[in-house]
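Example is below:
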Amino acid sequence: MSEDLGFVHRFEPGEGPLTLLILHGTGGNENDLVGLARALDPNANLLSPRGRVLENGMPRFFRRLAMGVFDVEDLIARTHELVRFVDQAVGAYRLDAGRIVAVGYSNGANIAASMLLLHPQTLSAAALLHAMPPFEPESVPDLSGKPILLTAGRHDSMVPGELSDKLAQMYSEAGAEVALEWMPGGHELTQQEIKVAADWLAQVKGKTDR
């Protein structure tokens, strides 16, 4: 664990060129999703920051006003902050800036969703697990050909299905290669979901390694 670069974070070097930017959910930390990330790609570099906002003592990546109601001004500012961290980590850890894939869950997926809208060049791809639209962008970003996986629970009480559809449409209209995969459960992560994400990532790597 390190507190350099502005975020408490965990970095684990891998044998391959890909870096997984791991973004935890509310109440999580830099260690929560490391095992999941290793299951997705045993050879990737792992970069896992801890959210800098506290909500009742629970780390988050940005503030919210109520359940499902984001403080958009704070979200945008925190997104810029996280992108600066990633840019600095690329230099500090000698990472390939063109091969950074976000893997975010819930709150972490939402800030990754914001990164795609505000700084599309930072991420080469993203797996957003139980995300919702972070805000309505003032202009449509160019996400041409960028692979984006969205997973959603059919009985997710925190992210209604229509919001998952809306986010998928938003990215598709920006030119991304969107895969929306529906899970039978709610807001929790499942083994089925992890397998879906691993298969998707293998396809993404297969395209870039040719």
